[in-house]
Design goal:
This protein is mainly alpha-helical and about 525 residues long. It is built from 21 helices and 2 strands. Helices cover about 55% and strands about 0% of the residues.
Length: about 525
């Protein structure tokens, strides 16, 4: 009935909000798929611990096997976003009937979503996205895949001269402890990610309303602005991680309007949802190795790395992001729009109208922010900038911080050389701080294993997304083991890259650093 439907919606919204704040809890049901001791229980470690996020775990200490390739594991993965323990009882249903009604509603949503994805994939824009995913390192049409007559594709890098690397997926699938990283998300998992994204957008809108209608009305300007700005910036950091999760796992939103909310707070002018998916796929296909930017063609994000190559220009990196050079900024949108699509006929038939819709939404959203700073506060319409400015500064700060982590830190020689020392066990205070800033250890895993993500952008996807459904510790354990086998296959004609050497050294250092 209508009451039951409303209760179900409220229940989902509350659960999604909890998952947004604590993304590594693993399941909406409140069950924590964290620690399970197999065989002899590991003794409690004394001495160094990373406080709340314990990276100093024993070798036999693994997470509950949610989402493994076994039948039971797949059932667990499906349940990870279904409420297996419903506590609300409708006035109009018995408990069993109410639970059954909720489960049926979820199943129907998943079926409808599956049909919608199939329809989207057959559209022009959907076909372009599918083609872009296929040419990534682990895609079906990657340059390293087999060609007719046997052997591999002959594409060599014009920059380094090496063959396009082949992901070492066959070796990794031999090990049950790693296989779960390659399992495909269920439709319920996909819907859940978009529910979390929607809750994030609602939270961001609520913060702007709270700032203009409450904080500025009752507090002095600077205290009100800081009380708004710091949480808003943190929400925008989460925005980038949620954006990255859905780009790699759920490229087609369940509702068309959700395509407009993915990064609308980043800038007043930005690329559309379909464009950001395409440019990110291009980034992966051209940069399979973290330390060789644009090794196999043009990388749209390559200009983000230029300033970090010299100490003199390094301080300008935050400003470069802040003014809109990152993937969700205005300057980047100009760069991408002038390079894609390649023909004007495609521009008009495939991309122009969806871009127009996206920019119309941005105009309405930021126009509303401007208006909130005028008549509701007793000001003329010309002074709307007095609210729009602090709002956009807070948002740009959050987006810039997140993109600096993704682009500049994750792809830097210094960071990857430091990771080779297994710092998560050696520097617990820094580990804790970064986990809090980024939104939890599942998000920090994205920073620790970005090389694995670049090797398997389709099969593994985002490490933060894997941590959401499987628990951060299980993902960390499996990713560290995967590094020991090598992300890419060894090539007889090519020497190991610096990134490959660092990965193997790191997995060994992590084992040796355990007390």
């Amino acid at each position: 009935s209508r009451f039951g439907a409303r209760a179900f919606s409220a229940h989902c919204a509350c659960q999604s909000l909890v998952a947004l704040i604590f993304p590594s809890r693993g399941s909406m049901s409140g069950q924590q798929p964290y620690i399970k001791l197999e065989g002899k229980p590991a003794e409690e470690k004394k001495g160094r611990r990373s406080f709340f996020f314990q990276y100093d775990y024993a070798d036999d200490e693994v997470a509950t096997p949610v989402g493994t390739t076994t039948k039971e594991g797949q059932n667990d993965l499906e349940r990870s976003t279904k409420q297996s323990k419903y506590t609300k009882i409708s006035l109009f249903y018995g408990k069993d009937d109410y639970v059954e009604a909720l489960k049926n509603a979820e199943s129907k949503k998943a079926i409808v979503y599956s049909a919608k994805v199939a329809k989207k994939e057959s559209s022009d824009a959907g076909a372009d996205i599918a083609d872009a995913k296929a040419v990534q390192p682990d895609g079906a049409n990657a340059p390293a895949t087999a060609v007719a007559g046997g052997g591999r594709g002959a594409q060599r890098s014009a920059k380094t001269g090496r063959m396009y690397p082949t992901p070492n997926k066959d070796e990794m699938l031999k090990h049950e402890s790693i296989k779960f990283l390659f399992t495909k998300m269920t439709n319920d998992n996909m819907l859940y990610l978009w529910e979390v994204f929607t809750c994030l957008f609602v939270a961001q809108c609520s913060m702007v309303l709270l700032y203009t209608l409450v904080l500025l009305q009752f507090l002095p300007y600077w205290p009100a602005t800081f009380l708004f700005g710091i949480p808003m910036a943190w929400l925008c950091i989460q925005n980038v991680y949620c954006l990255h999760d859905v780009i790699h796992g759920v490229s087609f939103p369940p509702h068309d309007w959700q395509a407009f909310i993915t990064h609308c707070w980043a800038d007043q002018f930005s690329v559309s949802w379909e464009d950001i998916v395409m440019e990110h796929m291009k980034h992966h296909s051209s940069t399979p190795d973290l330390l060789e930017h644009g090794e196999f063609g043009w990388d749209p994000a390559e200009w983000l790395y230029v300033l970090q190559y010299r100490w003199l220009t390094l301080p300008l990196v935050p400003l470069w992001h802040f003014i809109g050079a990152n993937d969700t900024g205005a300057i980047f949108a100009i760069l991408w729009y002038t390079n894609f699509p390649e023909s004007y006929s495609q521009l008009y038939t495939k991309w122009f109208w969806q871009r127009l819709k996206h920019h119309t939404f941005l105009f309405v959203l930021w126009g509303s922010v401007w208006m909130l700073g005028t008549y509701p506060m007793g000001r003329p319409i010309s002074e709307g900038w007095r609210v729009l400015l602090p709002v956009t500064v807070a948002c740009r700060t959050g987006f810039s911080m997140a993109w600096m982590v993704f682009a500049n830190i994750n792809h830097s020689h210094m960071w990857n050389a430091w990771l080779a020392k297994a710092p998560e066990r050696q520097y617990p205070c820094l580990t804790l701080l970064l986990s809090i800033i980024l939104g939890g250890p599942a998000r920090f895993n994205e920073m620790l294993f970005h090389d694995l993500h670049h090797g398997f952008p389709n099969a593994v996807g985002a490490l933060s997304m894997r941590g959401r459904f499987n628990g951060w510790k299980k993902v960390h354990h499996a990713a560290m083991e995967a590094l020991s086998y090598g992300i890419y296959k060894a090539e007889e004609t090519d020497a190991e890259t610096k990134q490959q050497q660092l990965g193997k050294r790191r997995s060994q250092a992590f084992k040796e650093g355990k007390r």
